[in-house]
Design a protein that fits this description.
heterotrimer, A mainly alpha (269), B alpha/beta (280), C alpha/beta (298), A: 269 residues, mainly alpha, 2 strands, C: 298 residues, alpha/beta, Rossmann fold, four-stranded antiparallel beta sheet, 39% helix
C-alpha cells in the first residue's frame, strides 16, 4: 500500500479546517503573491512567520507537512543548481567552466525558499480542506464563468472524482506492476526506450481498468439521479462566518505588508 | 398490485464483432414476468451471464425494455419524463464497492443522492444521519472511503441509497467481491432494512447461503426465469439447481444426499438447526 | 525442502506513523509436491506472506531460501526465481494487456528469454492446461468472459513452467460453475503435473476438499499448521480470528452434542454423509454409544 501524502486531506479539528474553503483558496493565492512581492531579510522573516503560524494553527503534524516536499525535491535541486551556476555577477568560486557568483547564491536561495514555501503553503490548503470542499469553493469562485458557457459545475465534479480515484489507481498500478513482475517483467533495467516499452504491460491494464471504473461510476451516479448541476441542492453550502471575514482582513494586512516590504525592503537577500 | 411488475419483458442488444461485418443481436432477456409485493425480500439467482444483472438494471431504468413493460410503484420505466422518479423509488447497489462511491468523505457520499434530488440542506443532514445510523456506519462519517473494509464500503453504498428514501433497493451481487465477514455484514444490514424499515429488497447473487432468508427466490438461466418459489421449495430441487450451474449450501447438499441414501428427512433443509432437529 | 522461511518479519512503512507489522517471525518450510491451503481474514498478512515467496517483497528481517539458496543474497537472480515460483494474483484478469490471447500468455516465457517458437509452444501448452481452446488464441483477451479471462491470466503464469504455483483467491467473484472449473484445473496441475500448489482462499469448504495441509495466518503469525481435519477441530479459535470452519464441521459438532456418535473431524459432505449413515445405523441397532457417548469416534 503506497502512502501518497502529497496534498491528501488530513482530518483534525483546527481553525484552518473550519475556515470556508473559498477563504483558504483566496488565501493561498494571496500568500503566493506575497512570496513574489517581498524583498529583504525582514520580508522573508515575515512570510516565514506567517507560514509557521499557519502550520501551527493547522494542527497537522510537522513531519507530515514536510513529507509533501519530497516529490518536488528533484525540481528544487535542479532549480538551485541552475540558478547557482548560471547567474552572472561577481565571481566567488570558479572551477573549469563552472562558476558561482554572489548574485547566483542569492537567487538560488530565494528560488529555493520561494518554491518550498509555495508548495508548503498550497499543501497546507489541501491538507486542511477536503477535495470536495475545495472543488465547491472553486465552483463558487469561478461561477461567473458560467456566463461565457464554461461548464463550471461539471469541471469541478470531474476534479473531485479524479481526486477520489487517484489513490485507488495508484494502488492498482502497484498491483499490476507486481503481477507483471511475477511474470518476469523488468521495469528497472535497460535503456530509456526499453524502459518506456516495458511500461506498456503496466499502462494498458491500468487504462482498461480506469475506463471500466469510469463506466461503473457513471452508471452509479446515474442510478443516484445525478443529472448535472441544475436543480441540485448542497449538503454543505458555503456560508461565510465571522472568522472568515477576519481571515480576509488578515489577508489584506498580509498583502499590504508585502507591498511595503517590496517598497522599503533592502534587496540584500 | 405489486411494487415491481415486469410483464413479458424482453431486452436485446447489438454486439459488434471486430472481424465480422454482421452485428449480432443478443437476446439477454426473453419474456420475463414477475411481480414483487411491497416489503418482500426477493433473491434472484443465476450463473454469470444468465441475465440477472441485466434484469436488475431494468428496475432502476438504467436499461429500458426492448419488449414488454416494467412498472415500478405504478410508474412505467420506459417513460422518459419519469426517469428520475423511477430511480428515486428504486435504488441500486452495485458489485464493486470502489466504483460506486462518489464522495471523498463517507457523509458526503451519502448526501450525494439527496443533493441530486434537490432536497433542502437541513433535510439532507437528517437523511444522512438517519441512513448512516441504519447501516451502522455513523461512527465512520468523517472517514475516507478508501480506508474502509469492503463490507463497510458496501454499507456506505447502501446508506447512500437509503438516504434517497427509496421504496425498494436492488442489490446487484453486492457481496461478490467481499470476504466472508464482509458478506455477512452486508447481508445482515440488508435483512434489517427489509424487516425494520419495510424496504422491498431485490438481491441478485450466486451465493446460495444468502437466499435462505428470502421470501421468494427466482432462478434465471439464459435470460429466462426457470425456477421460482420459496427458498425451501427451490432448495429441495438440488439436481436442477446444479444443472443451472448453481451450488447449494453444504447443509442442503448433505441433507439431500442422506435422503437419497434412505434417511427419512423433509425436503429442502436450509439450516444446520433444521438438519440437526430432523436427524435427532 | 523447496522453500524455507527462517524467522521472516515484515513491517510496512517502517519508522513512520503508519508502521504496521504485517509478518512476525514466520518460520515455514514447503516441500516439493505439497498442496497447501492458506486461510486468514483480510489484513491478516497472508497476501504479504505469499509475495515473499517469489521475492516481490523483501523481508525486513529473516531469510528466505529457495532450493537451499538465500534469495536476497547479492547476485541472486530474482527474475529467474519468479519463473520457478509462479504467483497468480487476485483478479489476475486485470493484468492482461496484449492484443490477442496467445501473445499475452507468451509474455512470461518471452521475459525468460526463450525463442519465439518455444514461447508459442509454452503458451499453447499452458492454454490447453487451463482449458482454453485453439479458436480463442487470436481473440482479444478483453472480449472474453470473466471466467475465460481469468484462465488466460493463469495460463500466463503457467507458461513460465513454474515448479510452485501460488494462487491468491483464484475463485473470487466467479459463479459456482466457474469456481469448480478453476479448482479442478488446479487439482489437475498438482496431481498430474506435480506442481506444488499454494492456494489462498476464503472458502473453508474449498480448502477442506483440496488442500492436504492448511496454514492459518492471524496477526502476521502462523496460528495453525496441519491437515485441514486437524485445523478445523480448532473451529472455536478460528471464529475468534474472524474465520470459520466448513458448515459440515458445525453440523457434526451439533449432532454430536445431541448424542449422535458421528466423526467430528469430517470436513466434506461425502465424509459427513458416510459418518452420519454409520451413526444412524448404530443408533438403530441399539449401539452402545447412545447418549452423551465418548468424543472419540472412529
Amino acid at each position: 500500500m503506497g502512502e501518497v501524502t502529497l496534498g491528501q486531506y488530513y482530518p483534525t479539528n483546527s481553525i484552518l479546517h473550519k475556515l470556508d474553503p473559498r477563504v483558504k483558496f483566496v488565501g493561498t493565492l494571496t500568500y503566493i503573491i506575497s512570496l513574489f512581492l517581498i524583498r529583504g531579510v525582514a520580508g522573508w522573516i515575515f512570510v516565514t512567520a506567517v507560514l509557521a503560524g499557519l502550520m501551527f494553527l493547522s494542527r497537522v503534524p510537522f513531519p507530515y507537512l514536510i513529507k509533501s516536499m519530497r516529490p518536488i525535491l528533484f525540481i528544487l535541486v535542479i532549480t538551485v543548481i541552475f540558478n547557482l551556476l548560471l547567474t552572472p555577477g561577481t565571481i566567488v568560486w570558479k572551477f573549469w567552466i563552472f562558476q558561482i557568483t554572489k548574485e547566483g547564491i542569492r537567487v538560488a536561495i530565494q528560488m529555493a525558499l520561494r518554491l518550498s514555501y509555495l508548495v508548503m503553503g498550497s499543501s497546507l490548503m489541501t491538507l486542511t480542506t477536503t477535495p470536495n470542499a475545495l472543488t465547491d469553493a472553486m465552483e463558487r469562485l469561478f461561477a461567473f464563468l458560467k456566463v461565457v458557457k464554461v461548464p463550471v459545475h461539471e469541471i469541478s465534479m470531474m476534479m473531485s472524482i479524479a481526486l477520489r480515484f487517484i489513490p485507488i489507481l495508484m494502488e492498482e498500478a502497484d498491483k499490476i506492476k507486481k503481477a507483471q513482475m511475477a511474470r518476469g517483467a523488468d521495469f528497472e533495467s535497460g535503456s530509456f526506450i526499453r524502459r518506456m516499452k516495458a511500461m506498456i504491460p503496466l499502462l494498458v491494464p491500468l487504462f482498461v481498468s480506469a475506463f471500466r471504473r469510469a463506466n461503473d461510476l457513471a452508471m452509479a451516479m446515474e442510478a443516484r439521479c445525478y443529472h448535472g448541476g441544475d436543480n441540485r441542492t448542497q449538503m454543505k453550502p458555503l456560508r461565510y462566518k465571522g472568522r472568515d471575514y477576519v481571515a480576509y482582513l488578515l489577508m489584506a494586512v498580509m498583502l499590504t505588508a508585502s507591498i511595503l516590504f517590496r517598497i522599503f525592503g533592502k534587496s540584500a537577500i | 398490485m405489486g411494487i415491481i411488475r415486469a410483464s413479458k419483458l424482453g431486452f436485446d442488444y447489438i454486439k459488434y464483432h471486430d472481424d465480422s461485418e454482421d452485428p449480432e443481436k443478443i437476446n439477454a432477456i426473453k419474456g420475463v414476468d414477475f411481480d414483487v409485493e411491497k416489503g418482500q425480500f426477493i433473491a434472484v439467482l443465476g450463473h454469470n451471464g444468465s441475465g440477472k444483472s441485466t434484469l436488475a438494471k431494468h428496475i432502476n431504468a438504467l436499461l429500458v425494455p426492448t419488449r414488454g413493460t416494467m412498472y415500478v410503484d405504478g410508474v412505467n420505466t420506459s417513460e422518459e419524463e419519469e426517469l428520475w422518479k423511477v430511480r428515486q423509488k428504486a435504488g441500486m447497489v452495485f458489485q464493486n464497492p470502489d466504483n460506486q462511491i462518489i464522495g471523498t468523505v463517507v457523509e458526503e457520499d451519502v448526501g450525494f443522492g439527496p443533493e441530486n434530488l434537490g432536497v433542502e440542506t437541513e433535510d439532507i443532514w437528517h437523511r444522512v444521519d438517519d441512513a448512516l445510523a441504519k447501516v451502522g456506519m455513523l461512527g465512520f462519517r468523517d472517514r475516507s472511503p478508501n480506508r474502509l473494509s469492503g463490507g463497510q464500503k458496501q454499507r456506505v453504498a447502501i446508506a447512500s441509497v437509503v438516504a434517497m428514501h427509496p421504496e425498494c433497493i436492488v442489490l446487484d451481487e453486492p457481496t461478490a467481491m467481499l470476504d466472508p465477514n464482509g458478506r455477512r455484514e452486508v447481508l445482515e444490514c440488508v435483512r434489517e432494512l427489509n424487516q425494520k424499515e419495510g424496504i422491498t429488497v431485490i438481491l441478485i447473487t450466486h451465493y446460495m447461503e444468502e437466499v435462505v432468508f428470502a421470501d421468494n427466490v427466482i432462478v434465471m438461466d439464459r435470460g429466462q426465469i426457470v425456477m421460482r418459489g420459496t427458498p425451501r421449495a427451490i432448495f429441495s430441487r438440488v439436481d436442477e439447481l446444479k444443472h443451472y450451474g448453481l451450488a447449494v449450501p453444504q447443509v442442503t447438499e448433505l441433507a439431500c444426499e442422506l435422503k437419497q441414501s434412505g434417511v427419512d428427512l423433509p425436503d429442502g433443509i436450509l439450516t444446520i438447526d433444521e438438519l440437526v432437529e430432523a436427524l435427532c | 525442502m523447496l522453500i524455507e522461511l527462517k524467522d521472516v518479519s515484515y513491517t510496512y512503512g517502517k519508522d513512520t506513523v503508519y508502521e504496521v507489522n504485517a509478518l512476525n517471525h514466520i518460520n515455514l518450510g514447503i516441500d516439493e509436491g505439497e498442496f497447501i491451503g492458506i486461510i486468514g481474514h483480510t489484513g491478516s498478512g497472508k497476501s504479504t506472506l505469499i509475495q515473499h515467496l517469489n521475492g516481490l517483497i523483501k523481508p525486513t528481517s529473516g531469510q528466505i531460501l529457495f532450493d537451499g539458496s538465500d534469495i536476497w543474497e547479492d547476485g541472486y537472480n530474482l527474475r529467474e526465481l519468479r519463473t520457478h515460483v509462479g504467483l497468480v494474483f487476485q483478479y489476475p484478469e486485470n493484468q492482461l494487456f496484449e492484443t490477442d490471447v496467445i501473445t499475452d500468455v507468451m509474455f512470461g516465457p518471452k521475459n525468460k528469454g526463450l525463442s519465439k517458437d518455444q514461447c508459442e509452444e509454452r503458451a499453447k501448452e499452458a492454454l490447453k492446461q487451463v482449458g482454453i481452446p485453439e479458436n480463442f488464441y487470436k481473440v482479444s483477451p478483453f472480449d472474453l468472459s470473466g471466467g475465460q479471462k481469468r484462465r488466460v491470466a493463469m495460463a500466463g503464469v503457467l507458461a513460465m513452467d513454474p515448479q510452485v504455483l501460488i494462487l491468491d483467491e483464484p475463485t473470487a467473484g466467479l459463479d459456482p460453475a466457474g469456481r469448480d472449473e478453476i479448482l479442478g484445473q488446479i487439482k489437475y496441475l498438482h496431481d498430474k503435473r506435480g506442481i506444488t500448489i499454494i492456494l489462498v482462499s476464503h472458502s473453508m469448504e474449498d480448502v477442506a476438499v483440496y488442500a492436504k495441509r492448511l496454514l492459518v495466518i492471524n496477526d502476521g503469525r502462523i496460528a495453525f499448521d496441519g491437515s485441514p481435519k486437524q485445523v478445523f477441530t480448532h473451529y472455536r479459535e478460528l471464529e475468534q480470528m474472524g474465520l470459520a470452519a466448513p458448515q459440515v464441521t458445525y453440523i457434526m459438532h451439533r449432532l454430536h452434542e445431541k448424542g449422535l456418535t458421528v466423526d467430528l473431524t469430517a470436513t466434506t459432505v461425502e465424509e459427513a454423509r458416510r459418518s452420519i449413515l454409520l451413526a444412524l445405523s448404530m443408533k438403530k441397532s441399539g449401539g452402545t454409544e447412545e447418549g452423551g457417548g465418548s468424543p472419540w469416534v472412529k
